[in-house]
Structures are given as structure tokens and as C-alpha cells.
Specification:
The protein is mainly alpha-helical. 59% of the residues lie in helices and 6% in strands. It is built from nine helices and two strands; from the N terminus they run αααααββαααα.
């Protein structure tokens, strides 16, 4: 099972921005207790909270959930302005390979809920014609 880094990344962002948990929480309409619960791993933020955090720090949801931001090359150029060198971002060539794989294995992928969720996440975090083509080819969610 792939580890999620939400807990570590929220703690990292709070620390890197030199904010109190209370001040960080206020940015997203949350209280200090909620932020503490996320950092301590006692609770997970809702999707809309993760979206607000990702928008505020100019990150993708994938980066917040699946990448340890502290271990990546991150530069805070100004408050709430992160530049992340993310090796997980697919190139156009890789997207074309995904599309071709879908065309070859359409029947199996239509049944693969994990792949469909990944595709939905990719479509949420970036506008891309190739990904939309893949989504259309796979049809509606079941």
C-alpha cells in the first residue's frame, strides 16, 4: 500500500511558513485542534480542505498526498508560493503512452477502479486533452 504524506506535509507547511497551528488553520477556515489532529495523524482533512491547501500553496493534490515535500527540492520564494520539482508529473510523451495502453487494454481498465480514480485525480490537477481522451474512451464511472 502506498503511503500518504498528508500528515507530514501539513506539518512541513506549518513549520516552513513559520505559522502557528491556529494561524495556519484560519487560512482554511479551521481551528488549531483540527490542524493538530492532522499533524498527529488522528484525523485526515476532507477533500475540500486539501483542495484549499493545495491552491493556497500552489501544489497539486497528488503532491500533498503522495510526495514528501520536505524531501523534494522546494523553494519558498515568498509566503505561500512554493515551487516544487515533481518527478511524478507526466510528460506529454508519457501521457500518450497511457492513452495507447488504454486503447490496447480498454476492457481490463474499464473494470479497474484504482486506475479510474488516478485518472480522475490527474484530470482534477491538470487540464490535458490526452487525459480527457482517455477518460472518454473508458466511459462513465460504474
Amino acid at each position: 500500500m502506498k503511503k500518504d504524506f498528508i500528515q507530514l506535509n501539513i506539518n512541513y507547511l506549518v513549520t516552513k511558513e513559520k505559522l502557528s497551528k491556529d494561524a495556519f488553520g484560519k487560512l482554511f477556515g479551521l481551528n488549531r485542534g483540527a490542524i493538530s489532529s492532522y499533524i498527529e495523524g488522528k484525523a485526515k482533512p476532507k477533500l475540500d480542505t486539501l483542495q484549499k491547501i493545495s491552491e493556497h500553496f500552489k501544489l497539486t493534490l497528488d503532491q500533498i498526498v503522495n510526495i514528501n515535500l520536505e524531501e523534494k527540492a522546494i523553494t519558498l520564494t515568498s509566503s505561500s508560493d512554493l515551487n516544487l520539482q515533481d518527478e511524478h508529473t507526466l510528460t506529454e510523451k508519457e501521457l500518450m503512452i497511457v492513452r495507447d495502453a488504454v486503447l490496447l487494454h480498454e476492457e481490463e481498465l474499464m473494470k479497474d477502479k484504482v486506475f479510474k480514480k488516478w485518472l480522475d485525480l490527474q484530470l482534477l490537477t491538470r487540464e490535458n486533452e490526452v487525459l480527457r481522451e482517455v477518460k472518454l474512451k473508458l466511459g462513465p464511472k460504474k
